[in-house]
Amino acid sequence: MCGIIGLFAKQKPIENRLGNLLGDMLITMSDRGPDSAGVAIYSEKESSLIKVTIQSEMSETDFPNLSTFLKKKNYSSARLKVNSTHAVLLIKQESARTALHDMKLNFPKIRIMSIGKNIEIYKEVGEPESVVERFNIRKMTGSHGIGHTRMATESAVTTLGAHPFSTGTDQCLVHNGSLSNHNSLRRGLINGGISFETENDSEVAASYLTDKMNNGANLRDALKSSLNDLDGFYTFVVGTEKGFGVLRDPIACKPAILAETDSYVAFGSEYRALSHLPKIETAKVWEPEPATVYFWEHR
User: Fold this and answer.
1) Structural domains counted in the chain
2) On the chain, which terminus has fewer CB atoms closer than 10 Å, C or N?
3) Which residues are catalytic?
4) What is the domain-level CATH number for residue 112?
């Protein structure tokens, strides 16, 4: 049992409050997942810069040392915005690949959480409220975001095992459920050149969708393909640069609710996650149908 949430802003006032609203949604789902929690926030682009969210258990030393290292290596445009155990590395697109290669060689304990133009991921072990406070989620703004509270069932409780999982540029996934064929899927993806950080079945789901999209599918088609290829019980919320998609398996035993107004679209494992949202009493509220893809994106 886990809790998942999503919020897609249609209007600027919601963008300005995105982190605050997501924080409340996440905390409301605490009893569904007290082991770890995380959010993916899609915020404004930084000109021609790439955002790389990184994490270190030794952030107090690793991040200052990394900043010094980047300057010495003449990555003069690189900037590091530290946020507790995480940081966002802002770097020119043409320098990103070489810089990340250098970082992996010289700072092997620093982990990459996400890469993209908009996405920032913050996740840690601990109850949702502590994660929201640690990263100051409430003050964040953005066009959309998704989140997760985890109750671990089949893999270790670690920062890397927390959701969201990001396996592609500006892509991420949160998952409530369990896949029964994740080991065979993982083997096939590894044979295709994809590497994994954890034993978590949700990372397999994220990598599966990324693989489909890397081979020409859009998110809608990738999600439709998963209905044939993924066995088990699942509800997915998947974030992309422009929006998010929702899918429940054909049996749909995992709870899910959607709400839409003129100013936002919201998703929650339960209605109580949405109950504090602005004008929720006037929203169109419905339970997403099984085996049906829902998707919203910004133009």
Assistant:
1) 2
2) C
3) 2
4) 3.30.70.120
pLDDT at res. 76: 72
Place of tokens 């003050």: 139
Residue 122 lies in a domain: no
The predicted-structure confidence for 52-78, as pLDDT tens digits, reads as follows: 999 999 999 999 999 999 999 988 789
Sequence-distant (≥ 6) Cβ neighbours of residue 93 within 8 angstroms: 48, 49, 50
Q: Which residues of 213-223 are buried (b: 16+ CB within 10 A; e: fewer)?
A: bbeeeebeebb
Phi–psi pair at 30, nearest 5 degrees: -55, -40
Dihedral-angle region of residue 63 (phi above 0 means left; psi in -120 to 50 means alpha; beta otherwise): alpha
pLDDT in tens, 248-291: 999 999 999 999 999 999 999 999 999 999 999 999 999 999 99
Residues 6+ apart with CB under 8 A from 203: 165, 167, 196, 197
